[in-house]
Fold this protein.
Amino acid sequence: MRPVQGTSQFHPARGRAAAGSRTDGYSIGRKGCRVDRKFVLTAFGYAIIGLALGIYMAGSHNHKQMVTHAHIMLVGFVLSFIYGLCHKLWLDNTTSKLAVAQYYLHQAGSLALLFGLFLLYGGFVDPAAIDPILGIASIVVFAGVVLMKVLFKQSARRA
Ligand code: HEM
Ligand code: HEM
């Protein structure tokens, strides 16, 4: 029998088998493309890189990449982790186009921002050349926060 929305079989946070049969824009298939997991998995990727940089700074007594380390940990790890928690706890793991767009927007903005900071604070590029890229990346990260608010508002209207 086809499971009915709203029953425990359909709750995206439970049982992968039931999640595969949804067609209403919520948690999808067995391949595990759930937005909460995507965010948390990505967050730990940032944590590994950010902590490695922190350990390198501490070991080498060279703290010139402090700003890069701080933002990899905060914009990359902490913010991605918080977004993952939001999807798990409040947004029912929606895989609507807006949710997927928000995920990629945050990742694209963060990657550009963090790599740009690494190049800037490492002295690998002319600050004037990297400034516009950092500016655009910051606006993209900002847009990700705004979109998360929109997702929350949408989910409140559905509830
Ligand atoms: C293996 C663990 C870590 C190591 C070895 C490490 C190392 C460092 C070092 C050497 C600095 C520069 C301090 C200075 O020059 O004043 C720093 C700064 C900083 N770290 Fe870490 N860190 C670690 C974990 C973390 C974590 C987990 C976070 C956040 C989630 C974090 C966030 C920051 C921030 C925000 C700053 C800037 C602090 C300021 O503005 O004074 N770090 N870290
Ligand atoms: C659009 C994204 C962001 C931009 C463009 C940005 C920009 C900056 C800038 C220009 C500084 C001063 C760096 C310096 O001292 O030379 C700074 C410091 C700092 N920011 Fe951000 N920030 C962003 C997001 C965040 C977020 C989301 C957090 C926390 C969750 C955060 C936490 C901090 C902290 C703790 C410091 C002081 C540590 C340090 O000097 O490295 N930032 N940020």
Residues 34-158 form one domain. The two ends are 26 Å apart (CA to CA). Residues 1-30 have pLDDT under 50 and may be disordered.
